[in-house]
């Protein structure tokens, strides 16, 4: 079951936008849960210069088989021109929690 679960990471510009996107992803059963971590400090290169912003990090739990659909929907909802969408495999976890992820994703 661990092989089926993945984590998707994305940053969003505000806590409000992050919550809006998270609710949609959960309501549409593309993921089981989204944790939002406010006030993440991002330093990155954009359009040839180093930029710094405060963002909200979304930690999204879903299944590998839903990762592509979730990623596409996240990009469609996201306000950024090039949104961060990173899919990470899980190598372990509490079996009942992993089962809950599987049961929660449509």
Structure report:
It contains three helices and four strands. It is elongated, with a radius of gyration of 14 Å. The two termini are 16 Å apart. The protein has a four-stranded antiparallel beta sheet with strand order 2-3-1-4. Strand 2 and strand 3 (49-63) form a beta hairpin. The chain has helices at residues 15-27, 64-77, 95-104, and strands at residues 5-12, 33-46, 49-63, 86-89.
Q: Give the terminus-to-terminus CA distance.
A: 16 Å
What gyration radius follows from the Cα positions, in whole Å?
A: 14 Å
* Widest beta sheet: strand line-up: 2-3-1-4
Structural class of the secondary elements? alpha+beta
Q: Given the structure, what is the number of helices? A: 3
Pattern of helices and strands: EHEEHEH
- Mean residue pLDDT: 95
Shape field: elongated
Helix content: 25-40%
Strand proportion, as a percent range, falls in 35-45%
Number of domains: 1
Per CATH, the architecture is 2-Layer Sandwich
Q: State the name of the first-level CATH class.
A: Alpha Beta
Sheet bearing the most strands, described?
A: 4 strands, antiparallel
Strand count:
4
| CATH fold name | Alpha-Beta Plaits
- pLDDT below 50 for ≥5 consecutive residues: which ranges? none
């Amino acid at each position: 079951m661990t092989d089926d679960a993945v984590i998707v990471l994305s940053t969003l510009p505000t806590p409000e936008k992050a919550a809006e996107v998270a609710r949609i992803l959960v309501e549409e059963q593309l993921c089981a849960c989204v944790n939002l971590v406010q006030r993440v400090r991002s330093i990155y290169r954009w359009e040839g210069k180093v930029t710094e912003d405060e963002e909200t990090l979304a930690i999204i739990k879903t299944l590998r088989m839903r990762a592509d659909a979730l990623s596409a929907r996240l990009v469609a909802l996201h306000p950024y021109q090039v949104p961060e969408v990173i899919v990470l495999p899980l190598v372990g976890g509490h079996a009942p929690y992993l089962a809950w992820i599987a049961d929660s994703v449509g």
